[in-house]
């Protein structure tokens, strides 16, 4: 097995275990066991468990962030030229790429669960890493929403965006939250979730 293959196998194993068991509930020995590697390989490629989590997040969030940035910047340019853009369109540019990542592969679904875990655990491992990686995207989201909702108080908009992110993180964990199994709809495919979530969030953002 090449060094690149070993590194990828370790990232894949860590991503799945962190998603299913949580960061604190996963040991490096479990990661190496699932990856078919040894601890020396983990230390060589990543140095520590914390750096491994950082690498897991960067592998998905950097390209995801680039896609969001491109979409939101396109919308800002359209609005600056005088075009009317709907709240739903702004939300789709931010939320859509994340939800589609969930559907892209089994690995994508595991990563979306990991993101949901991180977002739903304020102050937990990964929060600071995640905030640093997605912060620029959230700033663009706020700019775009301020442009489409110019009469909404800026502090109130911040509150509503926080609520939107909370609903998004919960949606990423659909079907995996203990005690919620009886409340999860039968159909949880990406388009269905987006079709239910975005109108819900739009109503909240546009509320008087």
What does it look like?
- With 208 residues, this protein is mainly alpha-helical.
- It has one domain (54-206).
- Helices cover 75% and strands 0% of the residues.
- The chain is built from nine helices and no strands.
- α1 packs across α4 (49-80) and α6 crosses α8 (154-172).
Keywords:
single chain; about 210 residues; mainly alpha; 9 helices; elongated
Determine the mean pLDDT: 87
Biggest β-sheet, characterized?
Answer: none
Helix and strand element order: HHHHHHHHH
Number of helices: 9
Helix content: over 70%
Shape: elongated
Given helix and strand content, the structural type is mainly alpha
How many separate domains make up the residues? 1
Give the termini separation.
59 Å
* Beta strand %: under 5%
Radius of gyration: 19 Å
Q: Which residues sit in consecutive blocks of at least 5 with pLDDT less than 50?
A: none
DSSP strand count? 0
Task: Sum this structure up briefly.
This protein is an all-alpha fold and 208 residues long.
SSE inventory with pairings:
Layout: H1 3-21, H2 28-35, H3 39-45, H4 49-80, H5 87-104, H6 106-119, H7 127-148, H8 154-172, H9 190-206
Helix pairs in contact: 1-2, 1-4, 1-6, 4-5, 4-7, 5-6, 5-7, 5-9, 6-8, 8-9
């Amino acid at each position: 097995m090449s060094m690149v293959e070993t590194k990828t196998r370790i990232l894949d194993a860590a991503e799945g275990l962190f998603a299913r068991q949580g960061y604190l509930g996963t040991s490096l020995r479990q990661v190496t066991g699932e990856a078919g590697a040894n601890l020396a390989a983990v230390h060589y490629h990543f140095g520590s468990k914390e750096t491994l989590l950082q690498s897991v997040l960067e592998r998905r969030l950097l390209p995801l962030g680039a896609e969001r940035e491109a979409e939101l910047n396109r919308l800002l340019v359209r609005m600056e030229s005088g075009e009317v853009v709907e709240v739903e369109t702004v939300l789709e540019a931010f939320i859509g790429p994340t939800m589609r990542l969930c559907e892209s592969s089994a690995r994508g679904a595991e990563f979306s669960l990991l993101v949901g875990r991180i977002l739903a655990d304020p102050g937990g491992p990964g929060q600071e890493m995640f905030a640093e990686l997605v912060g620029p995207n959230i700033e663009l989201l706020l700019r775009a929403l301020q442009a489409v909702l110019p009469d909404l108080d800026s502090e109130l908009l911040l509150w509503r965006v926080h609520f939107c992110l909370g609903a998004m993180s919960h949606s990423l964990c659909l079907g995996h939250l203990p005690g919620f199994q009886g409340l999860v709809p039968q159909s949880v495919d990406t388009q269905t979730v987006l079709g239910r979530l975005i109108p819900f969030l739009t109503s909240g953002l546009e509320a008087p």
